[in-house]
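Subject: Growth hormone-regulated TBC protein 1

B.,
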Amino acid sequence: DMNRTFPDNVKFRKTADPCLQHTLYNVLVAYGHHNKAVGYCQGMNFIAGYLILITKNEEESFWLLDALIGRILPDYYSPAMLGLKTDQEVLGELVKMKVPAVAELMERHGVMWTLVVSRWFICLFIDILPVETVLRIWDCLFYEGSKIIFRVALTLIKQHQAFILEATNFPDICDKFKEITKGTFVTECHSFMQKIFTDPGSLSMATINRLRETCREKLLSQG
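Prediction pasted inline below.
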């Protein structure tokens, strides 16, 4: 995974001096020792790599990674990824409440949410949305917690509802979800961040936690 982490970024190339691959390795190994229950899981390399690019500091990146994995996104990067799977199902339930026509389309064509949004959640929108927008999202994520991920996802879906509903089959739906993360709507980060706090409407942690409990139980019963 080291060589696949931001291969187009000059600071992560082996010829760079200093090469941030070494810093990334140190952070991930240290975290593996610090949290043996998680160790290392795919996706963590992008999160840690992004933190290193932002902070330019090995220790700060480590503690921010610990805050994300241990407190803000529990069980996202555990071996079973139960937290991640749960939150993808929670998004599906929220779409039923907020954008029912899209939820009905997904159900009608048998498209599971994990197929279209897993990278949004695993990578926290890295390489999905523009860098400036991702940085603003992460600011809010550290300040307000995991509900920001749902706000961003719901805003993307709600804003492009008509476009998504043009889909007529399974592959078409998947393509639509790739397209909605591009364009001026997401590049104009200031207006985008305003939208995520208005478009989805009310979204309390109480609602999210209630849905998490229901979805987690459902996943566990399915084995």
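The radius of gyration is 18 Å.

T.
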